[in-house]
Amino acid sequence: MKVRLVLVEPEGKINFGFILRLCKNFEVDEIVAVRPKFDVRDEEVLTFAANGRDYVDKVKVVDDYKEALEGLVVCTSAKVSSADPLRDFVLPWELKEKFGEPERLTLVFGRESVGLTREELKECDALLHVPASPQYPVMNLSHAVAVVLWEVWKQYRIEKGAQPERPDERDLRLALGVAERLARALIKDEAKRERVTVAIKRLLAKATRQELRNLLYLLSKCANRLGE
């Protein structure tokens, strides 16, 4: 499994340097910076990267957020809510249990100042939340990256064992497309339709290959019956 780290509009050179060091600690395969606010090769970045400075060669800088997303996309946020499908979340130690071992795991972290927007969260297959004290739940970016990368390292590199087969990305896109067509046909309220679509996307991301095929069969039958 390849691990890709995506940083959206990173603002701090010191944090970025620490994150490069972490990427070397935990053997991150790919690093993507979306519209960084500084030169990723700045000397201050490299200083704080220490012996991880060679990982700056792995950094790909892009302008398009969607271009950075590939495989199973897991966004991170300090703001969560089980009442909002967009902010319904999984915990770091649940990753392997809920999603198995995809070909590529893309971990998305937002801006130090405001995190990820709702539009950016909509592109994710799941939302990951690192719980902390309710009195001060917002973590420093590099600290949050450290916690998540450690969990990924522990679950996927250290703990080995049989895992359910992950569905093909083609089947995932197909199932989501059918579900979206059904939602458009059956739910007229745009806000409710969006919430249902997000919930279905998150549900499909957790399915095994066989579960997804069964769901796709059912969804296709429903769509055919409705003439969609």
Automatic annotation (TrEMBL):
Record-level GO BP terms: tRNA nucleoside ribose methylation
Database matches in InterPro entries: Alpha/beta_knot_MTases, RNA_MeTrfase_TrmJ/LasT, SpoU_MeTrfase, tRNA_m1G_MTases_N
One cellular component term from this protein's GO annotations in UniProt: cytosol
Keywords: Methyltransferase, S-adenosyl-L-methionine, Transferase
Keyword Transferase: yes
Residue stretches making up the tRNA/rRNA methyltransferase SpoU type domain: 3-150
Gene Ontology MF annotations: RNA binding; RNA methyltransferase activity
Family statement: Belongs to the class IV-like SAM-binding methyltransferase superfamily. RNA methyltransferase TrmH family.
PANTHER family assigned: TRNA (CYTIDINE_URIDINE-2'-O-)-METHYLTRANSFERASE TRMJ, TRNA/RRNA METHYLTRANSFERASE
UniProt-recorded name of the protein: tRNA/rRNA methyltransferase (SpoU)
Lineage summary: Archaea, Thermoproteota, Thermoprotei, Desulfurococcales, Desulfurococcaceae
